[in-house]
Every structure is written in C-alpha cells, then in structure tokens.
Amino acid sequence: MDHQGERRSGWSWWYLLFVIQFVAVLWPPFYNKLEPTLWGVPFFYWYQLAWVVVGAVLTAIVYFATDD
Amino acid sequence: MQDVNWTALIVFVALFGFITWLGFAAAHWRKGDLDQLHEWGLGGRRFGTLITWFLVGGDLYTAYTFIAVPALAFGAGAVAFFAVPYTILIYPILFLAFPRLWRVCHKHNYITAADFVRGRFGNRWLALAITVTGLVATMPYIALQLVGLQVVVGGLGVSGTGLAGDLPLIIAFVILAAFTYSSGLRAPASIAIVKDILIYITAFAAVIVVPIQLGGFEKIFAAVPPAKVLLAEPGPHTTGALGNYATLALGSALALFLYPHSITGILSASSGHAIRRNAALLPGYSFLLGLLALVGFFAIAANVANLPEYAAGFKQFGNSFAVPALFLHSFPSWFVGVAFAAVGIGALVPAAIMSIAAANLYTRNIHREFINANPSDREEAQMAKWVSLIVKFGALVFIIFVPTQYAIQLQLLGGIWIIQTVPAVLLGVYTRWFNEWALLVGWAAGTIAGTAMAAATNFTPTYPLAIDGWTFPGYTALYTLVLNLVLAIVLTPVFNAIGAAREDATVAADYRA
C-alpha cells in the first residue's frame, strides 16, 4: 500500500517508552516499602498509583509521536 | 440480617428502572439492521473514542472487581494491589496489538478471535480450541457478576429464604436478558455510560469522605495490621510474595484482552485510532480501581467487621461484604442507594457483553463452522440472540444452585485457560510463523498442565515452582504459557517438515492503517 501505512505498521523507537513502565511496576523490591509516605499513604501504594498516571502519559506520547 | 433500608432501596430501584428503559431504547441508537450479527453483536462497529471508553471501561472493570479487589485488601492486604500494575500493563498491549486485530477483523468481517484464528491459520480445530476456551472462561465470569449483585442486594437489607431470596437476582437477570436480546451490544454500551459515571462518583466520594471521617490516611494505615500493609519479604531461596505479585500482574495483563468480552468491546470501536486513543484514556479506570482497593483498608480502619449490625452480612458474604458495610456505615441512605446501584448496574453491563460475546462465538465458530455452513444473516443473528439467553440462564442457575466457591474457582481456571490463546491470537496478529498444529499442541499442553497445577494447589492462583533448590511461587497461568510457547516454537519446524502447505486468508496490508 502507501508508504505511510508501511511506516506506521512497522517498528517505532517510541515503543521503547512502554518498556519503562513494565520495569517500573514488575520489580516489587523497588517499591515494597513504607517510606517515604505521601499524605500518610505508604510508598508502596502511591508509587504504583503514580505509575498509572505516568503510564497513561507515556502512552499518550507514543500515540502522538507515531500517529498523524 | 438488618432491616430493609427503604431510602436506599428506592434510589436503587429507580436507577435500575432508568437503565432498563435505556437498554430497550438503545435499539434505536445509531440505528442499524439488528438482523445482522455484526450489528447486534458488535453495535455495527461504530462506537467512537468516547463510547468505546465507556464501553470497554464498563466491560473490564466489573462489579465483581469492585467488590473482590477491596475484599482482598481487607482480608489479605497488600497483595490486592497487584490489580494496579496489572491494569497499567494492559494498555501497552492494547495499544500495540489490538488496532492490528481490529483492522484485520474489520476487513474480513471477523466477529470473534476464533474467526481471526480460523482465517489466519486455516485450521478449524485450532479455531475450535480458541472458541471452547473462550466459552468456558466466560461462563463462570458471568456467574460471578451475579455475586456482586447479590452482595449489594443483601446490603440493602432485602432477604428471604429459598427461591424468594433469589428473586431480586432473577428479576435483574430477566431485565438484562430482555434488553440484550432486543438491543444487542447497544444496550450495554448505553448503560455503561450511566454505570461508569455512578462508579466514578461513588469512588471519589469514598476516597474523600471516608478518610475525613476516619481522621486521615495516616490513621487509616496505622489501623491496618503491619503484615498487611506491605508484601512479606521473601525468606532464603525463594522469591516469595514478591514473585507472586509480579507474575500475577503480568499474567493477568496478558490474559485480559483475550477474554471474548474484551475482544467484543474492542472490535465494536469505529477505528484502530479509537483503540489507540483509548489505551491512553482507559487508565482513568485503573486509577479508580487503585483507589477502590484502598477502600478495603478503610473498612479495616472503620472496624465494620466487628459492628453488630453488619455481622449477618459478613457471615453470609464473607469479606465481600467489606465494601457494602463501609458504605452503609459512612454514607447517608440515599447515597448508599446510588453506590449500590453503581455496583449492581456494574454487574449487568459486563454480564450483557459477556453473554453477547459467548453468543457470537457459538454462532460463528461452532454453529456456522460445524452445523450449518450457510445461514442467512437473519438466521445467524437470531441464533446469537437465543444463545445469549441460554448463556445467561445457565449462569443464573449456576449461581443459585451451586456454591459461590465453585464459580470463583472456575473463574480462576478461566484465567489459566484463556492465557493459552496468547500465541495464536496475540502473536498471530504479528506473525504467521507458527505452525497451526504446533499451536494446538502448545494450547493443549498449557491447558492440561495449568488445570493440574491449579488442582494440586487446591485452586489457588499461584504455584510454587521448584528449580534447583529455589522456589519461585508465581501465577500458574504465566508458567503454563511459557510451556505452551516453548512447545509451539519447538514443534513448528517439526510440523512444517511433515505438513502440507500453509494457509492464510489474510495479507500483511490487512493489518495496517
């Protein structure tokens, strides 16, 4: 088909941004701790909730970077 | 049980009345010919970014989730939070693989994952394996939605003995069955909008109002036993609770979008772009789920388990009653009605989509493939409507007559089974490298081994894999997927050497934008 379709379906280096969130949340020794707390919430909980937001932002970046 | 909470019950019934009307009215929404399967069963594939957001959100974050995740936090503590990494990881997978699946399915009018596998690999037995896996994984999931409904109806103080006790459940399901039959996927899509708004209101009220009542997060976490706040540090020569946590998150993430109801929700989008956008927007629900998991801890801090007025509820529903008890304890009656309606309607939306997905599977991949190869459009759509009724009736009978524990165990097994379709469906979207018979052998090995491992661990989700003096407790589904993949890879050259020419009804361009 057209050249653009070719490019869009293939690999993009932007996809590496996804790897970050896999590493960040799949290695529990990183975050299985109480301190530092945020508004009284242990690190374990706010760290993972924060990654929901960061993950969504990273996905949005990939979306805009790989889409027209 | 406590007395009937009339204010809450009236609000609850009024909201149910509203969504019932909405479910029937939905037949006229973005009107299409409901005598065609893709109109009835996929809403004509015309849901844009916003409706897809509501529909897929309403589909994946079920009532059962909203009851079970906080209940797990309430009972077991930190491990319940695996739902957060799990729902973080599903979105890169959604973003990368599913726009491709959407495009090829749109191009060839595939309605189900098994349709795709049939076309991609040209093997009806592999397609049958995908179909049967989808059906048996979905059935207990529908039944579990009823558990969520049962818990909130119990929380309203509505109780009875024998069949009278199940009457509210039966009424809800008759309503559900009727509007699904008449409106197809348009019904849950429109109701999902109401459900999701109610759930967001409830969740935000819960995480703002309750901590204020309880004196702040610091006090809440101080009230939780220290052993529940964090995962237990593993002992020597084992990855312990940390390994469990990570493998549960990864395995669940890989499995989620392979459930037939997930695929139905995704394929009903109007474009691959709508799916990609949703990968960035749907984490809104993950955040909500994380907040709701904390509600389990609020319930510990509010000490609801030891208040006499909720003793009967805990006795009947166990930890699942933690969230309803907390709401009854913390909110005025009218808002309890709103919150419980959110959960109750939250049960109907996924149950409707699951029954539609199961109906699509049976109609396309069993009936059309093996019984009547050339149905008219009308016959095909009619068949699906009937099957959706049978499926729901089966789930209802199951939950009324079989102990809930079996539904939970079957749903657990469903996760192990559905993940075995990863190589054929998720990898199949990218590559035709695998030999179809090798995929079938891998699927069978993973399914059998996973079932045996689950049985050996008394139907708990994790298996203590022992290698060379170390123990790696982890999610059985993930371990058996590795076995499945290894077999599929090793056997592909073998089967290619002895087999006939490969078939593939799709071409590379079908997957592109």
Count of individual beta strands of chain A? 0
Structural class of chain A: mainly alpha
- CATH evolutionary superfamily of one domain in chain B: Sodium/glucose cotransporter
Oligomer: heterodimer
Order of helices and strands of chain A: HHH
Radius of gyration of chain A: 17 Å
Number of domains of chain A: 1
Structure overview:
The complex is a heterodimer of chains A (68) and B (513). Chain A is an all-alpha fold. Chain A is 62% helix and 0% strand. Chain A has helices at residues 3-9, 16-26, 43-66. With 513 residues, chain B is an all-alpha fold. Chain B has a domain at 6-235 and 283-404: Sodium/glucose cotransporter (Up-down Bundle), CATH 1.20.1730.10. Chain B has 23 helices and two strands. In chain B, strands 1-2 form a two-stranded antiparallel sheet. Chain B is globular, with a radius of gyration of 23 Å. The model of chain B has no long low-confidence stretch (mean pLDDT 87). The chains are: A mainly alpha (68), B mainly alpha (513). At the A-B interface, helix 1, helix 2 and helix 3 of A face helix 5, helix 10, helix 12, helix 14 and helix 15 of B.
